[in-house]
Design brief:
It is built from nine helices and three strands, in the order H-E-H-H-E-E-H-H-H-H-H-H. By secondary structure, the protein is mainly α. Helix 6 runs antiparallel to helix 7.
Length: 216
């Protein structure tokens, strides 16, 4: 079966998500539609359509005669998005703890340990920050995807984009990176042990530390 070609509007929307995730366009930034079109490399019409979609998902807002405003990282919105992720993470972790893919999780732990070692023994570069961010999401998405619900996966991806925009406004500090990854490792070890209550307690602690770091 031939795969349906991606429309220009879909391509533009995917490009917007990449620009947001890579922090090329930032929280609270107001940009013109023509500048966004130039960044993406596509005509204005599909870019406008993509902006409408991104606006409907709460990633940005089109302001007539002024341009496009990227969502700002206000504390209330950050809390709402993180609480949603916490709920999905915990439900997914319950499922995963009953039938964990222990070999994959062990490999994920090793990759966390490698990042920790680099963070301790050398200056945290932009490349390491990107690697750490990607690994952070891989761990959290492992939890939520275990629910095995396509609609939750779709909503989780939207919520991820919102959180990413807001976190880009306050990138992970070297002081927070190592404790956060040690918290991840503790959670994954508890999943391997199939200790559901321990996993729940460790996830609650992890989110408490996230809120403390964000000062909210």
């Amino acid at each position: 079966m031939t795969e349906k070609p991606t429309s220009l509007a879909d391509q533009a929307f995917n490009s917007i998500r990449e620009l947001l995730r890579d922090n090329i366009i930032k929280a609270g930034q107001l940009i013109s539609m023509s500048f966004l079109s130039e960044l993406i490399g596509l005509p204005l019409a599909p870019v406008r359509e993509a902006v409408q979609k991104a606006s409907a998902l709460g990633l940005m807002k089109s302001i007539p005669k002024r341009g496009v405003l990227i969502i700002d990282a206000d504390s209330d919105h950050v809390v709402e998005c993180l609480v949603i992720r916490q709920i999905w993470d915990k439900e997914g972790a319950r499922v995963l703890t009953r039938t964990p893919d222990k070999e994959y999780i062990k490999k994920l732990i090793v990759r966390h340990q490698a990042v920790i070692e680099q963070a301790i023994n050398s200056e945290i570069s932009l490349a390491l920050q990107k690697e750490a961010t990607s690994l952070d999401w891989e761990m959290h998405e492992l939890l939520s995807s275990s629910i095995n619900n396509a609609e939750i996966d779709r909503l989780y991806a939207i919520n991820r984009d919102r959180i990413t925009i807001m976190f880009n406004a306050k990138p992970i500090h070297p002081v927070r990176l190592v404790p956060a990854f040690n918290e991840h490792i503790a959670i994954m070890l508890a999943i391997i042990e199939e200790d559901e209550q321990k996993v729940m307690d460790l996830l609650d602690y992890h989110y408490q530390q996230i809120f403390r770091w964000l000062e909210i």
